[in-house]
Amino acid sequence: MFGTGYIFWRGGDGIREEFGALGTREGVGFMAEATIRDVAREAQLSVASVSRALNGHKSVRPETRARIVAVADRLGYVPHAGARSLSMARSNAIGVVLPDLHGEFFSEIVRGMDREATRLGLQLLLSNMHADPVQAGQALRAMHGRVDGLLIMCPQMRTEGWVGSMPRGIPAVLLNTPEPMMDHPSMAIDNRAGAAAIARHLIDLGRRHIVHIAGPDHNIDARERREGFEDAVRKLAPDATVTVLSGDFNEDTGEDAANIILKENMKVDAIFAANDMMAVGCLQALRAAGKRVPEDIAIAGFDDVPIARYLALTTARVNIADIGARAVIRLTQIMNGGEGANDGVEVHEPELVIRGTTVTTH
Amino acid sequence: MFGTGYIFWRGGDGIREEFGALGTREGVGFMAEATIRDVAREAQLSVASVSRALNGHKSVRPETRARIVAVADRLGYVPHAGARSLSMARSNAIGVVLPDLHGEFFSEIVRGMDREATRLGLQLLLSNMHADPVQAGQALRAMHGRVDGLLIMCPQMRTEGWVGSMPRGIPAVLLNTPEPMMDHPSMAIDNRAGAAAIARHLIDLGRRHIVHIAGPDHNIDARERREGFEDAVRKLAPDATVTVLSGDFNEDTGEDAANIILKENMKVDAIFAANDMMAVGCLQALRAAGKRVPEDIAIAGFDDVPIARYLALTTARVNIADIGARAVIRLTQIMNGGEGANDGVEVHEPELVIRGTTVTTH
DNA sequence: TTGTATGCGTTATCAA
DNA sequence: TTGATAACGCATACAA
């Protein structure tokens, strides 16, 4: 099962013909790559010296070090990161557990994390957290013993499923997770403020017949955006109406909403979708049906994904990549022993971006 | 340095007060999480039995297993994945080494890989390969001993920098890498065919004054697209001219190209950009300057990133996510001992997608 | 069916 | 400055 089909690695010259002396589990000719012991033997020194030399310790004679480096080089020795982690109790990797994310959200957040992780010399271990709590637990547990810290995003309302299997032995930063768990620093988007900003903008434009395309209600972001929007409209313009249509954050449900509006011939002069993708789907469908945007109907979204700019979609900008990057930074601070000031939630305020789907540009 | 600032994990009840007996490197009260030995001691059994029980071996009495599971549960025991990998010489993780990718390419490829990896119960270990060969080597070496296989993308022409530090001990699949290395299966895009399809399309439309916005010349994709395009045009319409402007795959260089065309008042009726992002930048700049697309100038790109569809950009579609997913599948086949038929390069043919930037839709 | 002992590849402690 | 050796946490021959 194991040890077949591999393309073996030979860094230096001689093939290790004496590997049997070290023993091999398979018993067959598994041509292993050079280990620290091979280097030690070849250099006529102890493994301890090799380890010290290769890790830049001072207490090793330059001459000795040179000999070791030469041998290591010749054998193509590469330290076994797994063994190193086990011995040092440090992996220089951080685990990232994400749910099934819609569209560009996934990309942007991973991108931001990757940017910062690379800068800090950390590796990112990715794992999906499915809605299924069992799988979520598995994903979480698979991280134990491989990473120094955890970045967990789970905007679903139900946290009971996985909090139980959350390793408490390693630091973790939570993203967009409802009811921030005690002792865990977290990152959050001020969805209410963003939605309120959109509301104010639409109301200022004189719109009063508003439709909100909501995201799934078990999603914390979706819920906060809806509530924040409804509250703001109620306060700013009691005479306005907000009709809520349901979506799932995907483009086609935005299209569905548009079709409902068209078919029912609803009286609508503004639409606020809980995210950009639904806004985009709605926008396209409406324009295809001959509606003028923004003249007849103004449309706004949330997130400011890259596409939004090209379609001139008014939206509440969330710098997703930055949030990911910030999460990595906070996590490493904790990992490196930074004590105080790391707890609590770091709230990111969305920024209203006004574009052509709500105001005419000329 | 280590062991401070952590939020410790206690799964069951009692705090291990006897950890000192097991020894600890720090000497201080590092409250470690339960290990297999804790479970064994608590259950009054050997670690071997615990291991067998928890890994579903048959040779363990149901009664014994139950006792073990109960204890493990109570102590909140989670196997240490790192130690497990070391012992089993298998990590269930695959390493992904990517260069600094432009725009959505990164997202899409990681997305496809993640999709398949999740399905196969594998974790993805991400690492950036910078242009700097030294860093590239580091990224590669850091993977040694943590992953069972490697997915490497490096479209840069210069491979000397990192091939040397490529672990040959583990299977690897190369993506978009020039001069496919011997013994290494690889994935490639048929850039020439895609570019030729675009060429034919533009020529069929009667366009003869063509500009090509090229990508960086040290990039294999960029080079192949340029050469394939020039060759095709030369063959299909010897009377046509192709002027090459240089870009770097980013949107703004597409814009730059447009400005050059405008400022020089070049006679141009078609533009083929080496990727969508440059095409988009060019498109926006041209339209902003009052040019009619496609009437005055037809524009085509390459890749079919999500944005392309919304802007109705004609392009050569590459299913990036699928390539990533396929790479994972091929890799696992090799990892699982699938012998033949895994070598060689798997070529993905782009598909011509005709949209509104080259033909009027009504 | 269960226990004992060894090895995985590395780092760190302590003595030389 | 160097070497012998015990961890790290787990899996597995082999013996009982």
Structure in words:
2 copies of one chain form a homodimer. The relative contact order of chain A is 0.11. In chain A, the strands form 3 sheets. In chain A, strands 2-1-3-4-5-11 form a 6-stranded parallel beta sheet, sandwiched between helices. A 4-stranded parallel beta sheet of chain A has the order 7-6-8-9, with helices on both faces. In chain A, strand 1, helix 6 and strand 2 (123-129) form a beta-alpha-beta unit. The longest helix of chain A is centred in the middle third of the chain and has 17 residues, at 220-236. Chain A has helices spanning 19-22, 36-43, 47-54, 62-75, 81-88, 104-119, 133-143, 160-163, 191-204, 220-236, 251-263, 276-288, 306-310, 320-335; strands spanning 93-99, 123-129, 149-153, 172-175, 186-189, 209-214, 241-246, 270-273, 298-300, 315-317, 345-348, 351-353. The N and C termini of chain A lie far apart (68 Å). In chain A, helix 3 crosses helix 4 and helix 11 (251-263) packs across helix 12. The first copy, chain A, is of the alpha/beta class and 362 residues long. The interface between A and B is large, with 72 and 72 residues. Strand 2 (123-129) of chain A pairs antiparallel with strand 2 of chain B. Chain B binds a DNA duplex (16 and 16 nucleotides) through helix 3 and helix 5.
